[in-house]
Specification:
This protein is 21% helix and 43% strand. The protein is an alpha+beta fold. The N and C termini lie far apart (106 Å). This is Ig-like domain-containing protein.
Length: 238
Amino acid sequence: GLLRPLGSLFLMLIQPAWINVLREDPVTLMCQGTSFYGGNLTMWFHNGSSIHTQNQPSYSFRAGSNDTGSYRCQREQTSLSDPVHLDVISDWLLLQTPSLVFQEGEPIVLRCHSWRNHPLNKITFYQDGKSKTFSYLRSNFSIPRANLSHSGQYHCTAFLGKSPHSSQPVNITVQDGNEGPAIPLIFSPWYQITFCLVMGLLFAMDTGLYFSVQRYLQSSMGDWKNYEVRWSQDPQDK
């Protein structure tokens, strides 16, 4: 299933392990953690509104169009979990994904899924309009280790019986290992502070160097003048 760390809680989307499903698909959400005691009530929230209270830390339903949205859970004496978003789509065909954002090195598994699990054949997966893989029966497309080139818009096509169908596109992003989008160095506040400090230091060094060189030149010019005087006097002494 899909396991997401949520502080002291975990909210697990386990059946199916996708963040997008078709109408009438069975869905089970599970609220799990390490500090639960028997008898604790589990409260479920959909788009901020309470929807279900029960003893068991799981919530199962058949997806309907109104079930799209953000889900959170809470058990007694625990904080509210972070949200998990579920999209319920009304269509014949759906490209399913466990996430919209992946880190470099993570595996990506996509699934071409049909309404009511009608048998599929001649299944093709596309990235940015280009065919990536074709199979007569295999409905999964796997990328063992994601890299930045795997970001893009994905969709699948397949035949339900003799009828061709195409899924709506899904945008997949692969990040370069950072948890969030990278901030350009030039806009980083630490970069600006460091830049100002370095420039100030260089200015101070340049100012000090300027006066040191000036003193050295003045001293050197004085020595040179003294040397010229001595040199001009020497022939006369001889």
